[in-house]
Design brief:
The complex is a heterodimer of chains A (160) and B (153). Chain A is mostly helical and 160 residues long. Chain A has 7 helices and no strands. The longest helix of chain A is centred in the middle third of the chain and has 25 residues, at 55-79. Chain A is globular. The termini of chain A are far apart. The model of chain A has no long low-confidence stretch (mean pLDDT 82). Chain B is α+β, with helices and mostly antiparallel strands. Chain B has 2 helices and 9 strands; from the N terminus they run H-H-E-E-E-E-E-E-E-E-E. Chain B has helices at residues 2-10, 16-54; strands at 67-71, 79-82, 85-90, 100-107, 110-113, 122-125, 128-133, 138-143, 146-152. A 7-stranded antiparallel beta sheet of chain B has the order 1-2-3-9-8-7-4, with no helix packed on it. In chain B, strands 5-6 form a two-stranded antiparallel sheet. Classes of the chains: A mainly alpha (160), B alpha+beta (153).
Chain lengths: 160, 153
């Protein structure tokens, strides 16, 4: 049964669609899988979203649900021994952005996650630790290594 | 670099068609929810009706208004015929131990017999009200301010 009113669902989809899709993409590295995962997560939100305390709670809950759903997909694809494909992102027209994103997508999953939540969503390392249920120190280490790896891969481009 | 990472992620955008598809599915799901609600309400009403239909009726107290008084003392008859059963006045039970139930009827122009066998010796009486009781096979007859208990013979 749907727990939320139709207007609330539409509001959530409107506000968080791109965020959900981006997280799915960060996890699955594949446009089509990310689109499928986005639809599944949207339905999950409709069916299972509890009443939220505030907007922060709502956003954090949606991020958590999306991460968990993507983890399940990855687990299943591992079971099926299918490696996820790295897709071109057709929506990106800027070559620089495309290159940067490709480099980010070549990083290990935990680095991609923290880069997204830190640089794009603007969460602090403490908040990321709470969402991903990891220690703050772990998140800071992942972030540092992500930056270092990116710097190594991108070379001079990193400083631009 | 911070801006470049931000812009790179910003370039990932969901196709509007997919967003629209999800919007549509919320509407479909809402319709499904309404029809589910209607079906479950109908199902519930049907189940309640079925339970009330199946539940064994309380047979301890005879019901109906086919009441005849067969013989009487001066004010109250000592025998009444009710729903095919003969009830006789009972003085052993204490009225305080009995809960009076629903009113079953009023004995308008009740037939009163001095002699049960002589059916042509009948007279008529009004104002006898019959009530069910908490004890099986016991009826309460109210006549003016008196309550009289009758037990099946």
């Amino acid at each position: 049964m749907l727990q939320l009113e139709i207007k609330t669902i539409e509001k959530i989809i409107d506000i968080y669609s791109n965020m959900i899709y981006r997280i799915c993409f960060v996890y699955l590295k594949n446009q089509h899988d990310a689109e499928d995962a986005y639809q599944d997560v949207a339905i999950k939100i409709m069916e299972k979203a509890p009443p939220f305390l505030n907007d922060n709670h709502e956003k954090a809950w949606i991020i958590k649900v999306t991460c968990n759903h993507c983890k399940n997909i990855l687990r299943l694809s591992k079971l099926r021994k299918q490696a996820p494909l790295i897709d071109d992102i057709h929506a990106i027209s800027n070559e620089d952005e495309q290159n940067t994103l490709e480099h980010i997508m070549n990083l290990p999953l935990q680095y991609r996650k923290v880069l997204y939540l830190y640089y794009y969503e603007g969460y602090s390392t403490k908040e990321i630790a709470s969402i991903l249920k990891r220690r703050d120190a772990t998140i800071r280490t992942w972030l540092k290594r992500a930056r270092e790896t990116l710097k190594k891969i991108m070379g001079d481009d990193y400083e631009k | 670099m911070k801006n470049r990472i931000y812009e790179a992620f910003d370039g990932i955008k969901l196709d509007d068609d997919i967003k629209r598809r999800v919007y549509q599915s919320t509407k479909v799901d809402n319709k499904k929810r309404i029809s589910k609600y209607i079906y479950s309400t109908i199902g519930l009403i049907f189940t309640v009706c079925l339970i009330f239909y199946i539940i064994p009726k309380d047979e301890s107290v005879p019901k109906g208004n086919g009441i005849e008084i067969l013989s009487s003392t001066n004010d109250a008859p000592n025998t009444i015929l009710y729903d095919g059963n003969i009830y006789v006045m009972n003085t052993e039970l204490d009225i305080n131990d009995i809960t009076i139930g629903d009113k079953l009827g009023t004995l308008n122009q009740a037939e009163v017999y001095n002699d049960l066998a002589a059916s042509d010796d009948a007279s008529y009486s009004d104002d006898y009200e019959i009530y069910a009781s908490s004890i099986k096979d016991v009826l309460i007859v109210k006549y003016k301010d008196d309550l009289i208990m009758y037990k099946i013979q």
